[in-house]
Amino acid sequence: MERFLTSDIPVYVMAVITLSGILITLAAGMYYQQMIRQTENMLGVRYAFLQQIKNKFENTYRLNKGIEDISLFVDRQLKESKILLMSTETAGKASLKAACLCLLLGTGLYVLQGIFHAAETEMSRTITVTAVCVIAGFSIHVLADAADKRERLCLQLTEYCVNTFAKRLDRNSEDEKYIRSESDSIHNRKVFRRKPDEAMSDNRRNEENDRKVVRSNRNFDQSDMEPDAEGYNKKIRDREERKEKTVRLEKAASDQPPFSEDDLQYLKQSLERLAAGREKNASKKHKFTSEDEAVVDEILREYFE
After folding, report:
1. Is it the case that residue 21 has pLDDT exceeding 90?
2. Considering the entire predicted model, what is its pTM?
3. Range list of H helices, the chain
4. Which pLDDT value is given to residue 207?
5. What is the DSSP string of 38-50?
6. d(CA 69, CA 66)
7. Predicted pLDDT of residue 63
8. Segment 79-98, tens digit of pLDDT
9. What is the distance between the alpha carbons of residues 11 and 98, in angstroms, rounded to a whole number?
10. Residue 1 to residues 4, 116, 117, 123: CA-CA distances in angstroms?
11. What is the C-alpha separation between 176 and 181, in angstroms, rounded?
12. Which of 5, 130, 235, 288 lies 20 to 30 angstroms, CA to CA, from 85?
């Protein structure tokens, strides 16, 4: 035991503990500093942790239609972040914890050396190493200032979520509601303007389609198929006959002149009678009398009959 107390092993242990705490605290401080730099422009996020916070915030905000305490949400997400297999909050205090641990080890070692009557040089070396480890741990904790950086990161994330991201989500939700209402109104107008047969409900239409499918899938023999085939051929023949008849009528109408000679002669006599009536009443300031109206009416009636 005396050999262990006077050896260099306790000194090396305190040095390793202090150095490990210092490195972990510096790593946490650099991590917070990079995150603070990234939160100044959240449009192009490079770190997966910040992108994960954005996705969780968006999903929670849409699901609950808002978040009551955004700062609490951000603080909880920061506590879940890890570095070197430990939370970033614990990593930021690693040097302080290492200094406290070295203080306890150095005090215990000094007491044991006094009990076993160790040399004064060994006891003074224990005091010196313990003081150096404790001072180094506290100094790095103060200089790294990981706690302050974490608070700044939490503040910037909260400010971004409240003033930028939440308002953007609100605008998007309002736009989605407006677009949905417009689409619903357009759909309602289309349904209102449809014909009665087109305005049939979906259930009724589906039922009719099902009945048609059932009828088409029925098993029937060749005797049932023949009348349908004959009816189809009859329809085709009737359609061809109507087409031929229409062609013949159009050809006959094109061969006949638009007006016969009797029609032209009658029209010529009617126009002469109309001109004679006008010349007769030319001295009366070209006003139609009841006789002129009767003549014109008679001419037109006879022509159109």
Report:
1. yes
2. 0.53
3. 2-6, 9-39, 48-64, 70-80, 88-92, 94-115, 120-144, 146-160, 166-193, 202-216, 222-255, 261-280, 290-304
4. 62
5. HHT--SS---HHH
6. 9
7. 85
8. 888 888 888 888 999 999 99
9. 14
10. 5, 9, 12, 15
11. 8
12. 130
